[in-house]
Design brief:
Layout (H helix, E strand, L loop, with lengths): L4 H10 L4 E11 L5 E6 L5 E6 L7 H13 L1 E13 L3 E2 L5 E16 L8 E7 L9 H11 L5 E2 L16
Parallel strand pairs: 1-6, 4-8
Antiparallel strand pairs: 1-3, 2-3, 2-7, 4-6, 5-6
């Protein structure tokens, strides 16, 4: 299911007002160093695997669940790559949302990549030099997953300053 039931329940009361929601985004690698991607049914674009944690669910649990639900791949979470608030989005039905994404590096441990639900048109493993078209944020997240940097986050301006001065990975 593309929209979790708890979000539909909130929407029934809140209408299309902007909802600030958690999201998990996974950069999943296999033992050959390939990245797992899906071509999303809602946009037709290739993307990293992503989803919304259920109420009370830990981000790593949500990540493992979403990877399996969407792709049939069993995975483990290795580390947090970044925490980032995205720009607001407006969906075709007028609903507005803004996500704070927790981006996780994951490693496949079983299963076979396939379309496993109605959220994907295609699912596949891609070598880093053969990635399909991806937006700059997704590419930045893959690059971050290849480094051993500390967790990335948008820094807060020093007290009294107004310029944020950061770039999303």
């Amino acid at each position: 299911m593309a929209t979790p039931q708890f979000i539909l329940d909130i929407r029934a009361k809140a209408g299309d007002t902007l909802l600030f929601m958690p999201g998990v985004v996974m950069v999943v690698f296999d033992d050959r160093g390939r990245v797992l991607l899906n071509r999303r049914a809602d946009t037709g674009r290739w993307a990293l695997i992503a989803g919304i944690p259920d109420p009370g669910e830990q981000p790593a649990e949500a990540a493992v669940r979403e990877i399996e639900e969407e792709t049939g791949v069993a995975a483990v979470v290795e580390r947090v790559l970044s925490v980032f608030t995205n720009e607001p989005v407006v969906y075709g039905n007028g609903d507005k949302a803004q996500y704070i994404d927790i981006v996780l590096r994951c490693r496949a441990v079983g299963g076979h990549a396939r379309v496993n639900d109605d959220e994907s048109l295609e699912v596949g493993w891609f070598a880093l030099d053969e990635l399909p078209p991806l937006g700059p944020i997704a590419r930045g997240r893959i690059e971050l997953a290849l480094r051993d940097d500390p967790t990335w986050f948008a820094p807060a301006p020093a007290p009294g300053l107004t310029d944020r001065g950061y770039r999303a990975p």
